[in-house]
Amino acid sequence: MNRINLVGRLTADPELKYTAAGAAVLSGTIAVPRNFKNAQGEYESDFVRYKVWRKSAEIFANYTHKGSRVAIDGRLEIGSYDDKNGNKVYTADVVVDQFDFLNSKSESTQRPATTQQTNIDPFANNGQQIDISDDNIPF
């Protein structure tokens, strides 16, 4: 079984990209605090790379930013490549299947808006009568 669950804070604003085939992909690093103190009496963090794909990547990018507290669940993917000196470099990434946004309400409202918001109430009475026949009611 290859499952990993992490709770931490994003180290940078997510950057959404698209593959040549048009699939959305997002990668970044999450800082996960350790549950014990070091010799200096301080808590350290592990910095774990993650990837989110497709529609989930778009949702993740729209609702998170640097410092967002998130829980991620996925599988560990190990990869490797040869660097410019010919040395093999191993990588470890969490490929995220599920995530939860854990910011408090006050933290969530501090995020700058990335889209223009309007104060239009879609349910406001605009003075026109709404005609709903019995044929349109599903019960």
UniProtKB/TrEMBL annotation:
Protein keywords: DNA-binding
GO cellular component, one term: nucleoid
Pfam families per UniProt: SSB
Segments of this protein annotated with the region Disordered: 106-128
Cited CDD domains: SSB_OBF
InterPro entries referenced in this protein's UniProt entry, alphabetically: NA-bd_OB-fold, Primosome_PriB/ssb, ssDNA-bd
Zinc keyword on record: no
A GO term, aspect molecular function: single-stranded DNA binding
Superkingdom of the source species: Bacteria
UniProt-recorded name of the protein: Single-stranded DNA-binding protein
Organism annotation: Dellaglioa algida
Gene that this sequence comes from: ssb
